Known about the structure:
The complex is a heterodimer of chains A (310) and B (344).
Chain A: H1 2-20, E1 36-41, H2 48-65, E2 78-83, H3 99-111, E3 116-119, H4 127-133, H5 136-143, E4 146-147, E5 155-159, E6 167-171, H6 172-176, E7 179-183, E8 185-189, E9 193-195, H7 197-200, H8 209-212, H9 216-226, E10 231-240, E11 253-262, H10 265-275, H11 284-291, E12 305-309
Parallel strand pairs in A: 1-12, 2-3, 2-7, 3-4, 7-10, 8-10
Antiparallel strand pairs in A: 1-11, 5-6, 8-9, 10-11
Chain B: H1 2-11, H2 18-39, H3 54-57, H4 60-70, H5 80-90, H6 93-98, H7 100-110, H8 116-123, H9 131-144, H10 150-153, H11 155-185, E1 188-189, E2 192-193, H12 195-209, H13 220-236, H14 240-245, H15 247-255, E3 261-265, H16 275-278, H17 302-306, E4 312-318, E5 321-326, H18 330-343
Antiparallel strand pairs in B: 1-2, 3-4, 4-5
Helix pairs in contact in B: 2-7, 4-9, 9-15, 11-12, 11-13
Amino acid sequence: MHRSIDRRTFLEAAAAGTAAMGLTPFPLIGQSRADMAIATWTAPEEGAEAIAHEARRLTEEAINALGGMSRFVSRGDVVWVKPNIGWDRRPEQAANTNPDVVATVVRMCLEAGARTVKLSDNPCNDERRTFVRSGIKAAAEEAGADVFFLDRRKFRRMDTGGQNLRSWEIYVDYVECDKRINIPIVKHHSLTQMTLAIKNLMGIVGGNRSQLHQNLGPAMADVAKFVPSDLVVMDAVRVLTGNGPQGGSLRDVERRNMVAAGTDTVAMDAWGSTLFGYEPDQFTSTKAAVDIGLGTADFESLNPRRLDVS
Amino acid sequence: MAASKASKGRFAAFAPSLVNLRRLSQFLFLVLFFVILIRTTLVGEDDTEPWATFFFDIDPLILLSSLFASHAVLSGMLLALVTVALTLLLGRFFCGWVCPVGATFNLVSWARKAPVPKLIKTGVWNQWQKSKYLLLTALLVSSLAGLNLAGVFDPFSLFYRTMATSVYPAFQWGAEQLFAWIYYTDPGIGPVRLTLASEPIYGVLRDYVLSNQPLAYSGGVLIGIVFVFLVVMALFHFRFWCRYLCPLGALLGVFSKTGRMHLKLDGERCNECKMCVAYCPGACDPHLAGRWKKEECYLCLTCRDLCPSGAISFDAKIGNKTTQLIGPNKATGHSESKDGQNDG
């Protein structure tokens, strides 16, 4: 808690200073600093290269609209980037986070001075398959991330301080890193209707994960509060509208051509759920997260900056 | 005397000799087998390396049984014709120089501790060695009828199955347990911790050898028991599987009939010590002049290497002409013939 207040104070001062010097790339004066940004691609084209370009540009613009990556990552930080690499699926099947969104975040972290960008996931399918087939390993490594498989021995039972999930096995290095960036993909989930940022944290949870599904939403809200994300980047370039979370059929994939970024995990999930026509606070994970004070489901109250990019 | 002689013969490592060349060849094929085994996991893409099927491709039993059962072969299997050609020329060199299963049973036999008279007793040819030809016949007849049992009885199938579903998962489990225990307890004195050594080792194992998923296969225990049985039997009869059961060995035995290589026993020099019989893996009766069983000989050259009087050589018959291809091991013969006589 202390750290976030300190950072906020510091950043406000820094932003004011930058603005005063007239160096800001976007108009800050007279406008409150954005904590959420939604970037939409206005002229979507077909083809892998066009989509990759779109994903990169949307990610850059969304994060820059929040003040750039240097707002979140300081020189020397160890950053953990957490995409969804859960399934043995290719990018076009939209079951894992878009690799170009992931790689862009990695690159921006390193440009902001991060010492190391760690990237891993505890997937549902064999990680040797998912890391390769998702395209994330190749893209993130090229961008400079340290992509590795989790070491099963490093899941330690921890006290989450939560009411729904008092203690569980969580990955030690994830808890101990300096900054955490959560990059989920917007997709359907057969059990919880959708899976977004809060549920994406399944990837740093060990133990008997199937047991968590008894009370999945609230349990994951406790995890999200125990290891809060400094930044959430939500990939809606392609979304999976049915047969989630694994998907497979291209008929269930829809291009929405959006990437959102924000500091409030709950608001990001709330926005994500509206993409599929749900109420912002419809899901148990969102409700539970609001109840425990992790954030707000009323994402419009954050005045998200909406950007049209092309 | 016999023991010292034997140990010299068996452990005279690194000396440049044909037997050590054969051991090197066996070792390299064994390593290749395990490299292929470990590399043939699904690492990302659906394709495996084209050489993943190498041992099956050079296996004429697979070629024949597939041809019989499905009237079709994969082009890679034609490599087996090279094995056949070399066997027609040389004999069962494949069993002695190439086969990783045979190499494994050779290693097992190293652990065998038995007095030489007993080794000689189990080392002479016996009728039961014909049983592998029965198994081969049954397998091929069954293939003709459409049921290809090579997947059960072929030595490479057996070895792959055992290693992949039984030994490898057990090794994986053991290694994970061991290194996790060291990691959690971290024994050591002051700044010198065991993890300083164990973690780099574990890192290499994790990256190159172990699967990153816990492995367990139904049937793994039963498959393991079958293999343990064969290992135990190899402690009583050298290369038990190869002598009595291996259908590939039997097939190569058939092809070896035309082999040009012949064991020649010099009756003048032989002192009937039977060291050759004691350590003959194939029980091909190298001590019986004129009754050496070519189809049981792996051309491992152990007999020639061990013969204290240098009485064993290998000839090549080309046309009507006989040429001594591998002469008697005179070095062993001259220096230690006295020992040999004592053994007799």
